[in-house]
UniProtKB/TrEMBL annotation:
Annotated GO CC locations: cell outer membrane; type II protein secretion system complex
Protein name: Secretin/TonB short N-terminal domain-containing protein
Organism: bacterium (Candidatus Ratteibacteria) CG15_BIG_FIL_POST_REV_8_21_14_020_41_12
Residues of the NolW-like domain: 182-245
Primary residence: membrane
Family: Belongs to the bacterial secretin family.
Record bears the keyword Transcription regulation: no
């Protein structure tokens, strides 16, 4: 007996990373961490016996190694013994103050009434045919148990008593998943934190796998079996794609309303709701301050690329056509872009307090605010949600409050990339201003005004504010250039 205990103590040096904690009742000391790699089963039993302080006896049938390699943490001595014996096809029984280890087929005589089940395990990484040939696997079965291979599914069908089938599944699952490894997967376009918080990748992990993020490098840090990590990497490639962008080009101009009638624009929506091209919804409303000169309703039309250039050239030949702005702005798919063209108009505000009048200057923002939200379709068409707001100052009303004339609308239209949407119908009545000048001299900087004269007419002229919007889908490389 002295020789056996001495041998058990020496064997402690054969196991890596083993530490012990407090003693739990009847189950022996708690083992915080222990690994069995290429360890003889007898040596493992002797180590547990020495640590526990319980005699464990076995016969010559006990042979072979602990298979597969296993690492245990925070388990009692009895739990550790049960696990390594289960995996190796053995069981144990208490005999007063000692434990006897024997072949599982002998120990299961009391389990005659346990039901027989069949379970199919489909492999992710290992080949079912190769696993089925393992001698360690066959030792886990009872005499009547059997394992068959399904090559089409790459699966094993296990038939045995239920407790035995569960042990076999644990064994082959370890072989299939292999040892856990950690891999860093950098992302090019998606945000690592967003991908993890979505919960999609967690469904691909094993029970003990985990995913963390590294914000500094925008990477996923995955710990799991090699097969699971490969599956996650393939999935990440499908979702880590650049977000499509749209370049929005706009032209905002003001011209004589008489010119717009002869431009040949296909006004597809004018006065009656429910009509127009397929894919357009329309919801326009106008909020006009007292004395507003703006009138009419919004008109919506579309132009091909060549038509747009022709119409702009035609309007520019008219001396009273005024291009207010030619902005270009890029935005990503489903994100709104805002274009503002206008001015801050100072308005003198008079207020009274305790019989004393005070005057202050208030600046009012007027002009055009254009909000565009593009959504790219799979065939590279673009659905545009357009919200134009046009405002103009009409001066001061009773009580010193500024009067604003405001027109706004919301519309959604489907166009091809490069096709132009036209918004018109924003009419305003103004007195025409005519400029007469001496040729050449009237165009000289600084002093040219001496040779020019502006005359304001007595009649009213209708002016039309027109907005041209052209979306273009921006093609991008799937992988950004490397430094």
């Amino acid at each position: 007996m002295i020789k056996k205990i001495f041998l058990s103590i020496i064997l402690l040096g054969l196991f890596s990373g083993i530490t012990f904690s407090q003693v739990t009742k009847n189950e022996g000391p708690l083992i915080e961490s222990i690994s069995f790699e290429q360890t003889e089963l007898k040596d493992a039993i002797d180590m547990i016996s020495s640590t526990w302080g319980i005699d464990i006896i076995y016969d010559e049938e006990i042979k072979g190694k602990v298979a597969p390699p296993i690492k245990l943490t925070n388990v009692s001595c009895e739990k550790a013994l049960k696990i390594i014996l289960d995996l190796s096809g053995f069981a144990y029984e208490w005999e007063e103050n000692l434990i006897r280890v024997k072949k599982k087929s002998k120990a299961l005589t009391a389990a005659v009434d346990e039901k027989v089940i069949t379970q199919i395990y489909i492999f992710k990484n290992a080949k079912a045919e190769e696993v089925e040939k393992s001698s360690s696997l066959k030792e886990l079965l009872t005499g009547s148990g059997k394992i068959t291979v399904d090559q089409k599914l790459n699966a094993l069908s296990i038939t045995d008593i239920e407790s035995n089938v569960n042990r076999v599944v644990i064994f082959i699952k370890r072989l299939d998943e292999g040892e856990k490894i950690t891999k860093v997967v950098p992302l090019n376009f998606a945000k690592a934190a967003d991908v993890v918080s979505s919960g999609i990748l967690q469904k691909l992990l094993s029970e003990k796998g985990e995913i963390k993020t590294d914000a500094r490098t925008n990477s996923l840090v995955i710990t799991d079996g090699e097969a699971n990590i490969k599956e996650i990497e393939e999935f990440v490639k499908k979702i880590d794609l650049p977000t499509p962008q749209v370049m929005i080009e706009a032209t905002i101009l003001e011209t004589n309303s008489n010119y717009t009638k002869d431009l040949g624009i296909d006004w597809q929506f004018q006065k009656k709701l429910g009509k127009g091209i397929s894919g357009i919804s329309y919801d326009a409303h106008m909020a006009l301050g007292a004395g507003a000169a703006t009138g009419g309703i919004f008109q919506l039309g579309t132009l091909a690329a060549d038509q747009f250039a022709t119409i702009i050239e035609a309007l520019e030949t008219k001396t009273d056509t005024k291009i207010l702005s030619n902005p270009r702005i890029a935005t990503i798919n489903n994100q709104e872009a805002i274009i503002k063209v206008g001015k801050s108009t100072p308005v003198l505000i008079t207020t009274a307090s305790e019989g004393v009048a005070f005057q202050s200057v208030q600046y009012i923002e007027t002009g055009v605010t254009l909000t565009v939200t593009p959504q790219i379709t799979p065939d590279d068409n673009v659905t545009l949600k357009i919200h134009p707001v046009v405002s103009d100052s009409l001066g001061i009303g009773p009580g010193g409050a500024p009067i604003l004339a405001t027109s706004e609308a919301t519309t959604t239209v489907l166009v091809k990339s490069g096709q132009t949407v036209v918004i018109g119908g924003l009419l305003k009545e103004t007195k025409p201003v005519t400029t007469t000048k001496v040729p050449i001299l009237g165009d000289i900087p600084i002093i040219g005004w001496l040779f020019r004269k502006k005359t304001t007419g007595t009649g009213e002229e209708k002016r039309d504010l027109m907005i041209f919007i052209t979306p273009r889908v921006v093609k991008q490389l799937e992988n950004p250039p490397k430094d």
